[in-house]
Design a protein that fits this description.
By secondary structure, this protein is an alpha/beta fold. The chain is 48% helix and 9% strand. The protein is built from 9 helices and 5 strands; from the N terminus they run αβαβαβαβαβαααα.
Length: 264
C-alpha cells in the first residue's frame, strides 16, 4: 500500500549499488515526471548522494547533453520512455548498468517501455539487478506473473499495513468523511469538466478502447486503467493515424478528469 516506505527503500538500494560499483550506472525509472522528482529529492535528502553524481534525463534534454550525462553521471533518473530511447540510440552503455529501480512496476505489461528496457539491458549484460516497487501489483495472479516475468523478478516481498516489522514506523491515522452539499458553483465546475472530458472519451472510443455506447457517467478510473492495460497487451494498435503517444496522453487526461468528477 501507499505510504509504507517504497521511496525510502528505493533510495537505500540505489545508494548501496552506487557505493558497491564505482564505475557502474544506477537507474531509477518512474512513469511520470512528478514521481521521478519525488525520488530525486529522496535520494539527495536521505542518502546525501552529491548532485554532481546524478542527472535527470527527461525528453527535453538534447541528445548531445544526454550522451555526456550518461558518460559522466552515476545515478540517472528518467521515465521508461526516455530510457528506452537512450538505449535505442546508444546514448548509454547498457553493459554498465548495475541496478535499475522500477517504480509503479505493475505497468510492466504488454509493450510498455519498462519491458523493453529490461530486455535490452539483459541483451548486453547479466550482471544487473532489478528492484520493482508497486502498491498495486496486479488485479490477479496472471497479471502479477506477467510483471515478474517481464522484469526478470526472482523474489517477491509483500508488506501490508499489518506487517509486524513496520508497526514502530507507522503513524497513527484518523479518517473522517465530510459530506458537502453541491452548490451552483460546484455544478458549474462539473459541467466544465465534463465538457472537456467528452471529446477525449470520444477519441478513445474511435480507437476501440471504450464501447461507443459508454457514457462519461459510467467511466471510472478503474475502467480507464483496465482499458489501458488491455490496449497495451494488444500491442498499442491505433487507427486513423493516431499515434500511441496521443492515446496514452488522452488516457492520462481522461483519468485525471474522471478523478476530479468522482470527487465532485
Amino acid at each position: 500500500p501507499t505510504g509504507l516506505g517504497k521511496t525510502f527503500i528505493a533510495a537505500v538500494v540505489m545508494y548501496n549499488f552506487y557505493r558497491w560499483f564505482p564505475t557502474g550506472k544506477v537507474v531509477f525509472m518512474a512513469p511520470t515526471k512528478p514521481l521521478v522528482a519525488q525520488q530525486i529529492q529522496a535520494c539527495h535528502g536521505i542518502t546525501g548522494v552529491p548532485q554532481s553524481h546524478t542527472a535527470e534525463l527527461q525528453g527535453s534534454v538534447k541528445p548531445e547533453e544526454r550522451a555526456r550525462l550518461w558518460r559522466e553521471r552515476r545515478i540517472i533518473f528518467c521515465t521508461p520512455q526516455s530510457m528506452h530511447n537512450d538505449l535505442a540510440k546508444n546514448a548509454c552503455e547498457a553493459s554498465k548498468i548495475v541496478c535499475i529501480v522500477v517504480d509503479e512496476a505493475h505497468k510492466a505489461q504488454g509493450n510498455y517501455a519498462y519491458c523493453a528496457v529490461v530486455q535490452e539491458i539483459a541483451r548486453h549484460t547479466r550482471h544487473f539487478r532489478v528492484l520493482a516497487l508497486s502498491a498495486t501489483p496486479g488485479k490477479d495472479l496472471k497479471s502479477v506473473n506477467e510483471v515478474l516475468r517481464n522484469l526478470l523478478i526472482k523474489e517477491v516481498e509483500v508488506i501490508n499495513e499489518e506487517a509486524e516489522e513496520i508497526q514502530q514506523y507507522r503513524h497513527a491515522r484518523q479518517e473522517e468523511i465530510i459530506k458537502c452539499e453541491s452548490t451552483d458553483a460546484s455544478k458549474d465546475v462539473e459541467d466544465r469538466l465534463r465538457a472537456i472530458a467528452e471529446p477525449i472519451l470520444n477519441n478513445l472510443k474511435r480507437q476501440g478502447l471504450f464501447y461507443s455506447s459508454q457514457s462519461l457517467l459510467n467511466i471510472t478510473q478503474f475502467a480507464i486503467k483496465r482499458a489501458r492495460e488491455e490496449w497495451q497487451r494488444g500491442g498499442e494498435r491505433t487507427s486513423d493515424g493516431t499515434s500511441p503517444h496521443q492515446v496514452n496522453s488522452d488516457l492520462s487526461k481522461l483519468n485525471a478528469l474522471v478523478g476530479c468528477l468522482e470527487k465532485a
